[in-house]
Each structure stands twice: as C-alpha cells, then as structure tokens.
Write a sequence for this structure.
DNA sequence: TGTATGACCAGTC
DNA sequence: CGACTGGCCATAC
C-alpha cells in the first residue's frame, strides 16, 4: 500500500509542476524528473502524462507544454489527434523550428517561477 | 517470473 | 545531431 501511495504522490507532483508551466513556455521530462529529485526516472514522467489522456479529471493539465529534451512533440500521438499538441502550442505563441519547439527561446525550468 | 516496451536522458563515437 | 549503450522503473503479457 505504501508503494501505491508513493506512486500516487509522484504522479501528483508531476501534475503540480506541469500546472505551473507559464503560457507560451515549455519544459522537458528530464527537468521535471530532476526537480522531483530523480526518484523516478524521466520515463515515469511520461507515464504520468500518459495517464492524463485516459483520465477525464486530468484534462486541465497542460500536458502539451511538456516535450522531450530536443523539443520534439513526442507525446502528440497520445492526444485526441496528433495535431492538438502543436496547435495548442502555436496558439500560445511557442516558437517552432521545423517540427520541434525552439527550447532556446521558450524553455521553462521548475522552480524558476 | 522473466522479457519486452515506453510521451526519456546522458555519455560516447 | 546520426547511431549506439546503459540506466531508469512501472506495466503488460
């Protein structure tokens, strides 16, 4: 039981961090994992966000503002359509370079808020 | 119970 | 940033 509680804690911490990402900015799985003390590797951040797409209660979380370390929209296939992620980012004026986000101009790191 | 997989990352060549 | 390696850890089969 303790284990499942810890897992739930980790998921919620990920959601809390994602909710803090300012409009027009993005962060990466690795930065979130590092901010949480790397207790679960960056892969678990992806798992937490994967749950967002399957849980109606979590739709308010701006998961589209989380990209991989290269700025790629690696999670776009898990949205309602593969285009939603990019459309939301562009609607927030997030700069793109080809198919990737320009992290040098819009990267946000947990704690800088 | 062991293996494979994944919205990942850092290091190396 | 191409390809590969090792590490990460929950889930699925």
């Amino acid at each position: 039981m303790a284990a499942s509680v810890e897992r739930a804690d980790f998921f919620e911490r990920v959601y809390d961090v994602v909710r803090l990402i300012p409009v027009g900015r993005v962060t990466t799985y690795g930065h979130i994992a590092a901010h949480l003390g790397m207790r679960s590797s960056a892969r678990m951040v992806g798992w937490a966000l994967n749950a967002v797409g399957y849980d109606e209660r979590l739709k308010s979380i701006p998961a589209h503002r989380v990209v991989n370390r290269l700025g790629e929209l690696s999670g776009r296939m898990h949205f309602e359509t593969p285009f939603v992620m990019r459309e939301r980012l562009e609607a927030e004026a997030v700069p793109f370079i080809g198919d990737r986000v320009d992290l040098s101009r819009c990267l946000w790191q947990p704690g800088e808020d």
Summary: The longest strand of chain A covers residues 27-28. The longest helix of chain A spans residues 2-20. The mean pLDDT of chain A is 90.
